[in-house]
Write a structure and sequence with these properties.
Chain lengths: ~400, ~70
């Protein structure tokens, strides 16, 4: 088994961006496609890989039906701190992403293109800039390349739309959603798959879809892998070199995701339906591993602090609520369990979700609720100043 | 009897003045930081005029009545 099946197949990733020549020699020229290609995308079953998992075909139809001018935004902001897959894809296979952008633009009739890359992801940014300059297609040559601030919410779709329109990467009030107003915002991995579906067809993709995952945490070789969705969590762990200690808990989907006990999840495949049955989602593709001496409460406190800091401070329930959640979680982690704090966490985590312009607070409380479920005993009995208890 | 109207809040505009909870306590309560929590579902018909006053009373125009059945955000 290899961790580089399709999107990442080809030359050594350490060699950096694949040139246009090598890309075309390896994969052949991009077939010419048009608006009818939306049927192929729909049949392929491809879903968005930015985190929300929205069906790509349905999104294209919605954009095409909005009437008026449409614009494509290639979203490589990748604000999720544990995720590396978008920047690795852009830094090594930029032309695959641009092929996908061409196919998507033809599919929805977009006449303009913006490419958004996390400004801190220098190699990805340089690779995309160079790749755009190598392409003969006017649509690509005239693209705007924008750096997204290294903020968690900067990759959220209304924030990306705001960045492209006004240079401010903060979420805006909904509705209308960007795709209802003629803006197709598509994650770079999604576009990479589109480029391959254009070459090999819907059935080829559908029969065995692959996904880019970032293995994070207590593994020997953390990093990006491309695996089929049939791959189990255990196999991801092994592909990432295994780890020095037994794994106790898993974090699916990164900071916008959910904790799970490792027991019972170890043999789960990465298929959306199988994960959904357990209340999990792969989200942006992060699988985090926590080993047996790690502390779920302390990890959760650290991540809640981060999520509170990353609020764009526009909506009260998010700005004040997440800060209060982070404070209470931090108190439990630092000073030990206080039943009042645990009760507050439970009440607030019911009250805050759904009350922001974007889904940042929703993700934060879903994440916290999963922590309260999985680490319930630890939250109830957390000692002050937790120390590593290496057996 | 419920109307075909729902309360909507622009969460970015809302500054937590709290007038909506004063004027329409049947449907709006405040969280620990003074920001409104709206009861789910359409506005009952007998509260519609109170809801309209609460909408008009919001100092930052963050509260609105909209046709629909889903309370949102």
């Amino acid at each position: 088994m290899t961790g580089r099946l399709r999107l990442l197949a080809g030359p050594d990733l350490a060699a950096g961006a694949e040139s246009l020549n090598s890309h075309v020699q390896r994969l052949g020229p991009l077939p010419s496609t048009g608006k009818a290609f939306v049927d192929v995308v729909e049949r392929s079953g491809l879903t968005g890989r930015g985190g929300a998992g929205f069906p790509v075909g349905r999104k294209w139809r919605s954009v095409a039906a909005s009437g008026g001018e449409t614009m494509l935004v290639v979203n490589g902001a990748e604000g999720e701190p544990q995720s590396m897959k978008d920047r690795v894809l852009m830094a090594t296979r930029p032309h695959l992403v641009l092929d996908g952008a061409l196919v998507a633009a033809r599919g929805v009739g977009a006449k303009q293109l913006a490419v958004v890359v996390g400004e801190a992801h220098t190699q990805a940014y340089m690779a995309m800039a160079a790749a755009l300059a190598q392409r003969p297609e006017p649509f690509l040559r005239q693209a705007r390349l924008l750096g997204a601030p290294a903020r968690y919410v900067a990759g959220e779709s209304s924030a990306v739309a705001h960045l492209v329109a006004e240079g401010v990467a903060r979420p805006t009030s909904r509705p209308p959603s960007p795709h209802q107003s003629g803006l197709l915002i598509q994650n770079v991995e999604t576009l990479g798959h589109v480029a391959l579906v254009a070459r090999y067809g819907a059935e080829w993709f559908r029969s065995n879809p692959t996904v880019l995952v970032t293995a994070a945490g207590a593994v020997t070789a953390p990093g990006v892998l491309e695996v089929t969705q049939r791959t189990s969590v255990r196999e991801v762990f092994e592909l990432a070199g295994g780890g020095p200690r037994p794994i106790k808990s898993l974090l699916f989907g990164g900071y916008f995701g959910a904790w799970s006990h490792a027991d019972g999840a170890w043999d789960l495949p990465l298929e959306p339906a199988a994960l959904r049955d357990r209340g999990l989602t792969l989200g942006c593709g992060v699988v985090g591993f926590l080993h047996d001496v790690g502390c779920g409460v302390c990890e959760t406190a650290r991540i809640m602090r981060y999520l509170a800091t990353e609020s764009s401070a526009q909506c009260g329930p998010c700005f004040f609520g997440l800060r209060a959640l982070a404070d209470a979680t931090g108190r439990i982690a630092e000073r030990g369990t206080n039943p009042d704090d645990v009760a507050r966490l439970r009440r607030w985590s019911e009250e805050i979700g759904g009350r922001g312009a974007c889904r940042h607070p929703d993700g934060a409380v879903m994440f916290l609720r999963s922590a309260l479920d999985v680490f319930g005993t630890d939250f109830a009995n957390h000692p002050p100043h937790w120390r590593a208890r290496v057996a | 009897m419920s109307s075909d109207q729902v309360l909507r809040i622009d969460r970015i505009r809302c500054d937590g003045h709290g007038l909506c909870a004063e004027m329409l306590p049947e449907l709006v309560r405040l969280d620990d930081w003074g920001y409104p929590i709206i009861a789910p579902g359409p506005v009952p018909r007998h509260l519609l005029s109170h809801a309209q006053k609460a909408v008009a009373g919001c100092p930052v125009l963050a509260l609105a009545l909209a046709r629909g059945t889903q309370t949102s955000r």
